[in-house]
């Protein structure tokens, strides 16, 4: 859900698409497209363009669409420095959609002392992590990294995956 828009309003807009105003939702309305950061930063999004994603998310959340494959591991990476998303809603979505559909579900929290923001993977943006440490976060989440604490980026390290007995590799 876009931050600042209550969930009941989001659900209403998804159901009644003609009500959605054709506006561009700026991350910073004072700067608009002139954020002056990375060449990869997007300064916002057209509100009507978010509807298909919100519709899919609601369909998954409500059980109208169910994942059909069983997963070995699903990890929610939670970043205390990310003020662009609602972590409470992400947790509810994660729990409702993925728990019981995977051998292992877990939430890992990035260390807030790192000061990483929403786009911590973008090497040209502000408040990002070094590429080697960011890649360790993703490898740890996948269960494939050598360091389950991702060089201190993750507060509570994740267990590594056991090798798949069929071919000897971790999945």
Description:
The longest helix has 15 residues, at 47-61. The protein has helices spanning 7-15, 47-61, 87-98, 131-142, and strands at residues 24-26, 44-46, 71-78, 102-109. Strand 3 (71-78), helix 3 and strand 4 form a beta-alpha-beta unit. The two termini are 31 Å apart. It is flat. The protein is built from four helices and four strands; from the N terminus they run αββαβαβα. By secondary structure, it is an alpha+beta fold.
Topology:
Layout: H1 7-15, E1 24-26, E2 44-46, H2 47-61, E3 71-78, H3 87-98, E4 102-109, H4 131-142
Parallel strand pairs: 3-4
Antiparallel strand pairs: 1-2
Helix pairs in contact: 1-2
Strand order of the biggest β-sheet: 1-2
DSSP strand count: 4
Q: What count of helical segments does DSSP give?
A: 4
Q: Oligomerization state of this entry?
A: single chain
Keyword list:
two-stranded antiparallel sheet; 4 strands; 171 residues; 4 helices; 28% helix; alpha+beta; two-stranded parallel sheet; single chain
Q: How would you sum up this structure in a few lines?
A:
With 171 residues, the protein is an alpha+beta fold.
């Amino acid at each position: 859900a876009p931050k600042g828009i209550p969930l009941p309003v989001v659900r209403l807009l998804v159901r009644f698409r003609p009500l959605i105003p054709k506006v561009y939702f700026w991350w910073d309305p004072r700067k608009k497209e002139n954020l002056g950061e990375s060449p990869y930063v997007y300064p916002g999004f057209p509100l009507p363009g978010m509807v298909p994603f919100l519709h899919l998310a609601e369909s998954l959340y409500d059980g109208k669409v169910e994942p059909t494959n069983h997963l070995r591991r699903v990890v929610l990476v939670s970043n205390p420095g990310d003020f662009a998303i609602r972590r409470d809603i992400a947790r509810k979505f994660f729990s409702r959609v993925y728990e019981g559909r995977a051998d292992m579900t877990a939430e890992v929290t990035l260390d807030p002392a790192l000061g990483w923001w929403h786009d911590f993977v973008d090497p040209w943006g502000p408040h990002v992590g070094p590429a080697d440490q960011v890649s360790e976060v993703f490898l740890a989440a996948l269960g494939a990294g050598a360091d389950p604490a991702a060089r201190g980026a993750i507060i509570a390290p994740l267990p590594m995956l056991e090798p798949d007995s069929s071919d000897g590799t971790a999945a």
